[in-house]
Amino acid sequence: MSAGSIAYTLVPSPEHAFPGHPESPERFRFFDRLQTGELSEHLRAIPARPAAEDAITSVHTMGHLQAIREAARQGPRFVDYGDTYVAPSSCEAALLAAGGTIAMLEAILAGDVDKGFALVRPPGHHATQNQAMGFCLFNNIAIATRQALRSGCARVMIVDFDVHHGNGTQDIFYEDGDVLYVSTHQRGIYPGSGYAREVGAGSGEGTTINIPLPGGAGDRAFQMAIEQVILPAGERFKPDLLLISAGFDAHWCDPLAGLQLSTSGYYEIASRLRALAEKVCGGRMLFTLEGGYDPRGLAENVGAVLRACAGLAPGPDQLGPAPRDEPDIGPLISEIRSIHSLS
């Protein structure tokens, strides 16, 4: 890969915080490393701005937007039955996270850049049309997808490699044949969705692909999923744009789940997705940050993805390989290939 540049927007939202909560500004504390060293020479900053109301309501109901505004005014408080919180500035933070993702999308669609990473919080892929959940208030990747479709893209592919299934994104596009949603996630954990036979409905039947991985799956499992499912599905779908819900809580050191990707594994995922984008959509790809709750691991893994997208060689894996052996996922991959006629 020849070295190039990758754009990014940074929305750390320091005032969106709740004491003791894992989705906190502490997640971004190591990102100042991106401003120094070899990688910094390949990064281009794109300023963020708050998303307009009509961008939010292209995905969410007006009632949901108003509910988040009102809850934030009354914050700090929780807004679901789990642990999704708002503080007084959280609605503004969520609008800026969505707007930062849109700003990156617009730069890509305008041809100013072809690859970008929206480093934003709060995350988004669990938020449904009318419900905040899973630390997510507005669905950043879904809002960007809708904007891309409105801006002339005929087909958009979303790859979600967060350790948790992106139930909100799946629900929003479940009957939309213009959006291919592919998710790798740990099976049996929050939010309890993302089974292999959830494949879409109506005109969207076949455009939802779920790869629910057993606990302990790591680099080899993800390589198999990419090579045997994600790449052939993307080549068949031929999207105009590749969007990635980039969660880093599938790393072995993350405290909230039980997959065991390494930093080197994230570099390989990004490299393979970059190759797919260059093959099918002129290299146009946009990463949007989702989970990742070990601050050092998050910084290392984001750096690995940025290096891959810029065409740089991988750096040293400071955190090392996964600590235990992986389970065999061959039968699972064969089942998914059969379900989606990829064999």
Key features of this structure:
343 residues; alpha/beta; Arginase, Chain A; single chain; two-stranded antiparallel ribbon; 8-stranded parallel beta sheet; 14% strand
Structure description:
This protein is α/β, with parallel strands linked by helices and about 350 residues long. It has one domain (about 5-340): 3-Layer(aba) Sandwich (Arginase, Chain A). It has helices at about 35-40, 55, 60-75, 90-110, 140-150, 165-175, 220-235, 265-280, 295-310, 330-340, and strands at about 5-10, 45, 75-80, 85, 115-120, 155-160, 180-185, 210-215, 240-245, 285-290. The strands form two sheets. An eight-stranded parallel β-sheet has the order 2-1-5-10-9-6-7-8, with helices on both faces. The protein has a two-stranded antiparallel sheet with strand order 3-4. Helix 7 packs parallel to helix 10 and helix 8 (about 265-280) packs parallel to helix 9. The relative contact order is 0.15.
